[in-house]
Amino acid sequence: xxxxxxxxxxxxxxxxxxxxxxxxxxxxxxxxxxxxxxxxxxxxxxxxxxxxxxxxxxxxxxxxxxxxxxxxxxxxxxxxxxxxxxxxxxxxxxxxxxxxxxxxxxxxxxxxxxxxxxxxxxxxxxxxxxxxxxxxxxxxxxxxxxxxxxxxxxxxxxxxxxxxxxxxxxxxxxxxxxxxxxxxxxxxxxxxxxxxxxxxxxxxxxxxxxxxxxxxxxxxxxxxxxxxxxxxxxxxxxxxxxxxxxxxxxxxxxxxxxxxxxxxxxxxxxxxxxxxxxxxxxxxxxxxxxxxxxxxxxxxxxxxxxxxxxxxxxxxxxxxxxxxxxxxxxxxxxxxxxxxxxxxxxxxxxxxxxxxxxxxxxxxxxxxxxxxxxxxxxxxxxxxxxxxxxxxxxxxxxxxxxxxxxxxxxxxxxxxxxxxxxxxxxxxxxxxxx
Length: 434
Ligand code: 4AD
Ligand code: MG
Fold this sequence. Notes:
single chain, alpha+beta, CATH 2.40.50.140, BirA Bifunctional Protein, domain 2, 2 domains, eight-stranded mixed sheet, five-stranded mixed barrel, 14 helices, binds 4-amino-1,4-dioxobutan-2-aminium adenosine-5'-monophosphate, binds magnesium ion
């Protein structure tokens, strides 16, 4: 088998290899040019020796600047002195494309790295995060597909708000006011009446101005919706999903190692996750010296105080009815609350999942929507919600679902400082480029 990639070459030292990649680093030392070559599978040191290659190879190796794309053939051997542990001795070297001086050097401002995002994606950090991101997408789908879920595709342009409706991007749709979806939940709900268990996995858009380390204006939103589920079953599905992603990532050793993650810690993220009611959470917070009154939402400092000591995510369930959306049903055992849960990541990484049962009876829904209008001082344009409300008229069933913010999960699992590094081209209130 021809050895064409760095990872293969390292597994089969002494083999002849023909590698294509990019020059990651370069230095010359007398009659030898040392390079570190990068391809998708890793890094390897390459030594081009004047005495051992033809004249053209020597000349091109001399000319090739960092980030040039190149092809190099030679023999690989283990070499303790090499920064990568292996060295390829080149027998031939060619430039595919000679790079201009690369604008990113060792120490750069965060702003420059964001402006040059299209190039910064070649950094070792971003390469590994983007691989892990791809795995998170794969493992999430894998978990749900195995359980008989169907992936469904909701529209992105819509007339309805899925949450508050207050932070939606407006667009002109052939003369009609339309919005970029803030949640696909309402459309996923429509599909359970034929497919029973579905998920949509598309972006949601939030026009929130808040500049925090966990808000994006465009994020990838995994939204499962299940017929006949109550919130207990809903929470079990959520912890199963998160645990599956963590187990599979823990076994992707290359990723774990590259990102400085301890696979044992990662694989300890297993069910059951702690469950505390909103009321209990208030008590815990008050005891910790972070006073919060009934009916108030958790702020960043509360989330941190609540989860700082945790190693696994934690559910906060049954929130006050006045601060949760119109589709959440009243808890019959405590009418101050609705049947819902938020999943909080450890160490203050914040809410990674929001889920609930759904109001599934027509009259209850009319009442709940009227109540939310009053509490929040909003007015639903009922003609836009007509189709969704109508689902409650034709063979409605109890159901539940949740929404997982993928970048929030990645930020937490990879312990990133900022959510923008969990997505290749972040969209934030102050960033639309590249
Ligand atoms: O809590 P949210 O707003 O809930 C919904 O949209 C429900 N309709 C979901 C459902 O039940 N189908 O958003 C769900 C999750 C949050 O827990 C968070 O992980 C993520 O979406 N999220 C964001 N991620 C990045 N940037 C933002 N601005 C986000 N807003 C929410
Ligand atoms: Mg939420």
